[in-house]
Fold this sequence. Notes:
The protein is an alpha/beta fold. Helices cover 31% and strands 24% of the residues.
Amino acid sequence: MKTINRLKIAVTLVVIFLATVGAFAQAGYKLGDKVANFSLKDASGKEVALKDYSSGKAVVVVFTNNTCPYAKLYENRLVKLAGAYSGKNVQFLFVNPSVGDEGGETLQDMASKSYSFPYLADEGQKISTQFGATKTPEVFVLHNTSGGFVLKYKGAIDDNPQVETSVKSSYLKNVIDEVLANKTVTVLDKRPTGCMIRKY
């Protein structure tokens, strides 16, 4: 009898585990979903909301931080890309999900960066969870339609995190160009290469 009960408990635990894994796998926005407005503060305390860019054509949300080696490798590429599209009504937003008492990074760490676009603190990880972001860096391209922002792409920036000059496929750039031209997005999602976002 004890063996049967133990077996039942083991099976129940496995079912619960698989259900939990499935829930995490399905968490966050899916391609084509309308993205709800959100608001976060930068290191100076200034509040920035998605709706602030409702007159633009697209918003690129980048989940990143100061310490991940992959985030460091991609930093200059993203800054250059943001500059290249700043005159084309495309807004970049950096969002740091690693800020907080348990996240390991501080607002002072963020303040050391001087980007030409907002760098926002996701304290409590509400927005990274809402998007379903799992790594830094990970990008989400939002297309501004008449009905609000719609998710068109999520995932990797390009196909070579280590060597910028060896990039063969610039996923993010290509998606932005397709969105601006109102074309069908040909690459919908690519698994990002980066550091796992530690949940706390």
